[in-house]
Each structure stands twice: as structure tokens, then as C-alpha cells.
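Instructor's aside before we start: the two examples that follow are unrelated to each other. I chose them only because their records fit on one page, so don't look for a connection. First example below.
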Amino acid sequence: MTDQNAPSIEIENQTAPAAPPPAEAPVKHTPQPPSAEKKENGTPSLDMLMDVNLQLSVELGSTKLTVRQVLDLQKGAVVELNRIAGDAVDIYVNDRLLAKGEVVVVDDKFGVRITELISNAQDTGEV
């Protein structure tokens, strides 16, 4: 039952004014140096790593000494190593075994001729 004498209320559908769209952050494009560009097949180029310095060391052999034995060392003392003369020496790059080789002399300086490259599987003992 509606009362015809009652005042009528009319409600309009109102919407709040739309907020302005968020400002887009400017996109910066940093060009990569030519050495970091990708090759034609899409793989990254290793050129950017070519100037990284690595530590190469050669191990003739090793031994264990007590503190007393080290303190007793004098000029001319001979320290016996665990390798036989003529055995291959170990070549390390950044403390990781890379190869085996033989000691050579080049212009009055020692050098190493690589005779065997060590794969990761050989280095870690994996099969």
C-alpha cells in the first residue's frame, strides 16, 4: 500500500568523477656496450669476460712438515715433495684443476707445456 500524499524521493545514479590515470613512469633504455650484445643466434656473447684476470698456478708437488721442521729450514735445505721427477705437474686456474703438464725452460724462464686438459667430471670425481 502506497500513500499517494507522501512526498516522493527521486534518487539519481551519480558516479564520482574519475581519477586521472596514473602517470606512466618513463622507460629508460640503457644501450648495452657492443661487447655484451647477443650473437646472431641469440646467445649472449662472452666478449665482455675476455679481460677478466684469472690466477694461474702450477704445483710441482707438496709435502707436510711440522712447525719444528719448518723452523729448521736453512738456505740450501732440500724439501722432498710427494712427486717423482718427471711426473706431470698440476695446473690450476683460480684454485681449480684445469690441466696437467710438463715443466719446460723457455729463454731462461720456467714454463709449462700442457699435456692433458682435465674435464669437470674428472676434476670432481664424477663419472
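Example two begins here.
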Amino acid sequence: MRTLKFYAFISVCCLLPMFSGCGNNNIKTNGLISFSDGSPVVTGIVRFETPQTQYIALVQSDGTFNVNMGKGLPPGQYRVSVIDVRENETLLIDEKYENPDTSGLTFDVKPAANEPLKIIVERSKTNRPLINMKQITD
């Protein structure tokens, strides 16, 4: 009987954080991405990375984004990259932003509320076409 009580106690201790909300310390993180001329980036993915994990945000047609489907990010420092996603069009964002090592973008999420993040990117200097996966596989 004592063993059953012990396992019941351990089970409650393990499940309690899931129901109490204490386990989630994410901070609402949203922002706006635009080109250096002020026009919004109308599609893409903004990726926030740490050595352990990554989070993404889909860019909306007005240039706004909400990280982690509106759930935000845990406090910490993130390397940021931006991926241009278009169908059958020329990519507009300079390719240096696709890699967090070359993007030059970082973001520090503080434990308190953060101002909306403003990301400014440069337009592509070349008219690099979108790679069509059908062309690669044929």
C-alpha cells in the first residue's frame, strides 16, 4: 500500500506543473519586418535559434509576425534568420539573411514584456530565382 501512495505522490508532482501554468515562462514576441525602404516584407519565415532549439514565425501580408503561433519565446538570446518563401517568383530578400551566421540579426528576450521587434532587411542584389523542386527532381 505504501508503494501505491508513493507512486501516486510522484505522479501528482510530475503532472502538477502541466496544470499550474508555472512551466511556461514564454514572453509574447511579435514584430514587423520591412525592407530598408520602409515597404513591408509580405511573406516569409522568421526563425529564432538558440544552440538547443528554434522557433518560427510566419510573416503576414502586412509584414507582421507572431513567434511560436502567438505563444512567444522563453527569455534568452536568439540568433535570427529570415527565409524568403514565394511561389514561382524571384526572391526579394538578400540571401545573407537566410543564415543566422551571416544575417547579423540577434534578439534578446527579457523576462518582462518586450517591445515589438523591428527587423529591417535589404533587398536581394541579384534576381535570384526561386528553386523549383520539380526542376531538381526531373
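Confidence is low (pLDDT under 50) at residues 1-23, 132-138.
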